[in-house]
Write a structure and sequence with these properties.
Number of helices of chain B: 16
Number of strands of chain B: 2
Largest interface: A-B, 110 and 121 residues
Low-confidence stretches of chain A: 1-7, 293-297
Largest sheet of chain B: 2 strands, antiparallel
Mean pLDDT of chain B: 84
Radius of gyration of chain B: 27 Å
Strand content of chain B: under 5%
Number of helices of chain A: 15
Radius of gyration of chain A: 24 Å
Strand order of the largest sheet of chain B: 1-2
Shape of chain B: flat
Low-confidence stretches of chain B: 1-5
Structural class of chain A: mainly alpha
Oligomer: heterodimer
Order of helices and strands of chain A: HHHHHHHHHHHHHHH
Shape of chain A: globular
Structural class of chain B: mainly alpha
Helix content of chain A: over 70%
Distance between the termini of chain A: 17 Å
Strand content of chain A: under 5%
Largest sheet of chain A: none
Helix content of chain B: over 70%
Chain lengths: 297, 329
């Protein structure tokens, strides 16, 4: 992949050591959270959090999965919006990016401006909120979690950057053979764009999986709470108690009715784990798939 | 359909021989363009409609900044109040603080993020083979978790009783700190966490740009006896300069829009650290959820959009003066 010549082993050794240190520092927080979730509650209150459990326990996970209704519902909502959102968003992004990548498309400049202007200027939170609730009536619907993220200019930019590199002769020859634009797009361009689609699909699906902002704004019906909002609620309840002036009361409450420390961390892992496991499988597409436009030859 | 014809042909008068009025000629030629491009336009249509509704329609709502909004009267029916909504922002004693925090934090995120990502990408570009993938995957992990989880991780480190940071400090005999109640540490914590979360993605974007560089350049340079550092400075950096500039300009466009998730979940949304953690976005969110103050929030939204636009246009203008090719538009 990398064509640099003149590689010298000793300095590469230094660079490798540097990256290993960087990676260890980046991975350390994950290790800590995993460790907390696997430590027994007693050990936590005695020794605090540690990088390696002082006393191992799978109790937290047992509790998480014991009464899984809320969690399962959260999973259901999250999976649903992730799958639908990603597919729709990919299609919409590609359909928008393709005409923009065609230099012979008459309205190229105007449409490019139309799309990217929204990156620089927008109505802000309040008009957006009013639009979603008063005009589109999307409060407490799954659509409120799907629609806002459908078409991001940055994703269009990545897709366009990739399409720019597809040779234009292919399109020309398809036209000579009598294919029309729709056919060219769906039967030639899309199949050729697998790396970009895989990359974007992964980015988009992570966006949906991690969606909490729109949920915070638009969802208060327990039926439609995605995983991340569930976590937000647990976090804010716990923090409210931890920081409340009546520390003693809060301590009792914390242990009585709210998830204990290890359970909270276990939930965080259960909520983000699946995506982190999926990610490495798509890794191979990433460098090929991400090309932000205007890199001149 | 045949080959695309040069656009100029269409702007010439048709072969009717009679002179047509300029407007009519324009309409006819424009109609032809529409017809000719209709399939590509049709492909883009869903996206266009979507952007119109979700992005452009709310822009009309910007007039809310100058109105006293009431749900029963709607956006257009509500009463005009001029600049009254903006007063709170400049009168409130928090105003200076949240604007300063927003600008300084975002600026530090941009600089820190760009410099580190470039450095890592340049070093990564020197390596090859399996390890590069391992490094990339590891650096990417934080990018793929939500800010909520970052809040949880923050908790694991900064919790007063159990936090790992206090445990660590305990080993070297330093008394535990209640991090959430202090102000100064956040000046360093927030940029570090922002860097931790975003570095994988920015590095990858630069790295992907570097792998797109024609290897002939490096071969020629090697023949001329260039060192690796020289190649970095004379080939790699200049060639990915447009990318650096684009991302920098886009970053500037958001300089007055804060990272809400980071500043909301990481410092736990607790009062005592607000002097160094509160930014415009968290402030507005509080004003909205706690006080229901739609009008001030709308005014702030308006300011953010206008300032963002001015920043980008100015930055782009400056870039265009220096190097026309690298400008965003």
């Amino acid at each position: 992949m990398n064509m640099n010549t003149a590689k010298s082993a000793p300095s590469n050794f230094g660079i490798n050591v540097f990256f290993i240190i960087v990676c260890l520092m980046i991975a350390l927080p994950f290790l800590l959270v995993i460790s907390i979730s696997l430590t027994s509650e007693d050990a936590l209150s005695q020794f605090g959090y540690n990088l390696l459990p002082k006393a191992w326990s799978f109790e937290a996970y047992r509790i998480v999965f014991e009464k899984p209704t809320t969690l399962l519902r959260g999973y259901g909502v999250t999976i649903l919006i992730t799958v639908i959102g990603t597919l729709l968003s990919l299609l919409l992004t590609a359909m928008m990016a393709y005409p923009l990548s065609r230099r012979d498309f008459r309205y190229n400049r105007q449409l490019t401006f139309f799309v990217f202007f929204t990156m620089l200027f927008n109505g802000g939170l309040i008009p957006f909120y009013i639009l979603m609730t008063q005009y589109l009536h999307l409060k407490n619907t799954l659509a409120a979690l799907i629609i806002p993220g459908l078409l991001s200019p940055f994703n269009i930019m990545i897709m366009k950057g990739f399409l720019d590199k597809i040779s234009k002769e292919i399109i020309e020859s398809a036209k000579v053979d009598g294919a029309r634009e729709f056919r060219i797009f769906f039967q030639i361009i899309l199949p050729l764009s697998t790396p970009a689609l895989a990359t974007l699909g992964l980015l988009i699906s992570f966006g949906y999986w991690n969606e909490w902002f729109n949920a915070l704004l638009f969802i208060d019906n327990d039926k439609f709470i995605p995983l991340q909002l569930l976590l937000v609620r647990i976090l804010s309840q716990a923090d409210f108690l931890a920081n409340s002036p009546m520390a003693e009361v809060s301590d009792k409450l914390k242990y009585a009715s709210f998830p204990t420390l290890s359970v909270r961390m276990a939930m965080a892992i259960v909520a983000s784990g699946p995506m982190l496991l999926i990610f490495p499988f798509f890794q191979k597409y990433f460098v090929k798939g991400i090309t932000v436009g205007s890199l001149k030859e | 359909m045949g080959k695309p014809e040069p656009a100029e042909l269409h702007t010439l008068p048709g072969n009717t021989g009679r002179r047509q009025p300029a407007v009519l000629r324009w309409v006819i030629s424009e109609f032809r363009h529409l017809r000719k491009n209709r399939e590509l336009l049709l492909l883009a249509l869903p996206g266009i409609l979507f952007k119109l509704v979700i992005a452009y329609f709310p822009m009309v709502g910007l007039i809310l900044a100058f109105k006293f909004f009431r749900y029963d009267e709607g956006i257009f029916g509500s009463r005009w109040v001029g600049l009254q909504n903006f007063e709170f922002l400049f009168k409130a004693q928090d105003a200076f603080r949240i604007i300063r925090n927003t600008l300084l934090y975002n600026f530090s995120y941009i600089i820190l993020g760009t410099v580190s990502a470039l450095l890592l990408a340049l070093l990564l570009n020197e390596l090859s083979g399996r390890l590069v993938k391992v490094y990339q995957t590891t650096m990417f992990l934080p990018f793929f978790i939500s800010m909520v989880i970052v809040g949880y991780i923050g908790n694991a480190f900064f919790d007063f009783q159990n936090g790992y940071l206090n445990t660590l400090l305990g080993y070297v005999g330093i008394d535990p700190h209640n991090w959430y109640l202090e102000t100064t540490p956040w000046i360093f914590i927030l940029p570090l966490v922002s860097l931790w979360k975003g570095i994988g993605f920015s590095t990858l974007i630069y790295y992907a740009g570097m792998t797109g560089i024609n290897p002939d350049y490096y071969e020629a340079a090697t023949l001329d006896g260039a060192t690796r550092v020289q190649m970095m400075r004379r080939i790699t950096l200049p060639l990915i300069r447009p990318l650096i500039i684009i991302l920098f300009i886009l970053g500037l466009g958001n300089i007055i829009r804060g990272d809400f998730g980071l500043h909301y979940f990481l410092p736990n949304n607790v009062g005592p650290n607000f002097p160094t953690t509160d930014i415009i976005d968290t402030y507005v969110y509080r004003a909205l959820t706690k006080l229901g103050d739609i009008n001030s929030a709308a005014a702030v939204g308006f300011l953010q959009s206008v300032v963002g636009l001015i920043t980008v246009v100015t930055a782009n203008y400056v870039v265009r003066k220096i190097d026309d090719d690298s400008a965003l538009f």
